[in-house]
Amino acid sequence: MRKILAAFLILLLPLTSAGQEAATGTSAEDRDFLTALLEDNLSGAGRAVRVTGFAGAFSSRATFDQLTIADDEGIWLTITDGAISWNRAALLSGRIEIAEMSAGEIDLPRSPAAAGPQAEAQGFSLPELPVAVSIGALRADRVSLGEALFGAAAEVSLNGSMTLAGGEGATELAINRIDGRKGRLTLAGSYANATRQAAIDLLVSEAQDGIAANLLGLPGVPPIELAIHGSGPIDRFETGLAVSTDGAPRLSGKLTLITETGPDGSVERRFLADVKGDISPLLLPEYRDFVGQEVTLAADGSRQQDGQLTLSRFVLGAEGLDLSGRLMLSPEGLPRAAALTARMGMASNEDMLLPLPGEKTYVRSAELRLRYDAARGEAWQIDGDLFGFRRSGFAIGRLGLDGTGTVAGHGIPGGGQGSIDGEIAFAA
Question: Domains in the chain: how many in total?
Answer without folding.
Answer: 1
